[in-house]
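Hey, I'm writing a tutorial for new members on how sequence and structure tokens pair up, and I'd like a real worked example in the thread rather than a made-up one. If someone can provide the structure for the chain below, I'll link this post from the tutorial.
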Amino acid sequence: MNVVFCDIDGTFQDLGGEVPQINYDAIYALQRQGDHFVFISGRGYAQLSELMVELDSECDVIFSNGGGRKLVGEPVEYNHCLPLSVCEQVLTILEARNIFYHIHTNEGIILKDVENYTTNILALREKLESMGETGKQIMDFKEAFFKEQCQHVEDPLHHLMEHPELKVMKIELMEASDQEHEKLRELLRGESVDVFSSFTQCLEVVDTKSSKGNAIKEFMTNYPNARSYGIGDGENDLAMLDVVDVPVAVGNAKEIVKQQCQHVVGDCLDGGVGQFIFNDIIK
């Protein structure tokens, strides 16, 4: 048996873009021969619903970089969340440094009104100008998402205190300055949290056990004799690529990711995931 773990944004599909049909076809071909395809994403489970609707058959899902999972036929599990005390420490630092951040919970994403971050967003747009139209599309998509699809609260920490039923999967930030990224890594990382980059100019703060690598180890205990594949593009995929039998990078992956992989396949936009599955795994 084969188990294929696949990142979503930048790997299975471009951010906000359509999924190449070959990627869907590859999932169905794997399932027909008795193999497993598992989405493993930094997104929260609520942000995966649209993609799940597009599938003709269900898949197992690991979300929030291993913070939780939804196995076929079973309820959603939230395994490795950030406690309120850690959230308070992290948010105090971000507030003091005027960082644009948002909080992923089991009931969606919360953040302050986006108007509070006008200067931050302008700086991000300027940072991404070197990417041309792609950079503009990324920021247009992100800004619209934060404005239209997230819950706005006056004080995120106070909101968490008032709603102890909320489970915090991760705290994500966007910052234009690369120097500030390095400083934030130094300030935020600790015994109980890990910090890593995910998408363009993003850093994520998660529980130390909330990693794609740890989630895959937990998942594979049910399939000890299976051959595991991991396909990714970003720094948050490195933990996954370190534990699978066959690490794979899409062509648009970061160089540090490609260096850790046995295979470098086609770009995300060209359906590199599906092409690899058909060429190397389908019998």
